[in-house]
Amino acid sequence: MYQLQNIFKLFIKQKEKWNFLNFGLKTTVRDREGKPETAALETLRNFDDNFMLWQYFGQFRYKPTDKFTVTAGLHDMSFSFNSTNIIEQELH
């Protein structure tokens, strides 16, 4: 008969964090470049709206022994103003 012994301790820890940031922005850009000074200003940009920034961070920790730990993480940001998204990973 064989007896199996658990020589590794398994600890798994997970953390998650969500952030939602809401910004209000009102901006107008007008110019008359290339036109006489008496010409009416031309509106180049007129923005009056809200936009959001979403952030997520998740972390996973694996500790097989008392002296060895592996930590992995994921950070995601999404910006609704220009529809961009970035994901960063980390491993320690």
The gross shape turns out to be: rod-shaped
Number of separate structural domains: 1
Number of helices: 0
Query: Strand arrangement, largest sheet?
Result: 1-2-3-4
Kindly state the mean pLDDT as a whole number? 79
- Report the order of strands and helices: EEEE
| Main β sheet profile | 4 strands, antiparallel
How far apart the termini lie comes to: 40 Å
Which structural category do the helix and sheet elements fall into? mainly beta
DSSP helix fraction: under 10%
Which percent band covers the strand fraction? over 45%
Extended strand count: 4
Describe the protein's topology.
Blueprint: E1 12-31, E2 42-62, E3 70-79, E4 84-91
Antiparallel strand pairs: 1-2, 2-3, 3-4
How would you describe this structure to a colleague?
The chain has 92 residues and is mostly beta strands. The chain contains no helices and four strands. The chain has strands at residues 12-31, 42-62, 70-79, 84-91. A four-stranded antiparallel sheet has the order 1-2-3-4, with no helix packed on it. Strand 3 and strand 4 form a beta hairpin. It is rod-shaped and about 80 Å long. The model is unreliable at 1-10 (pLDDT under 50).
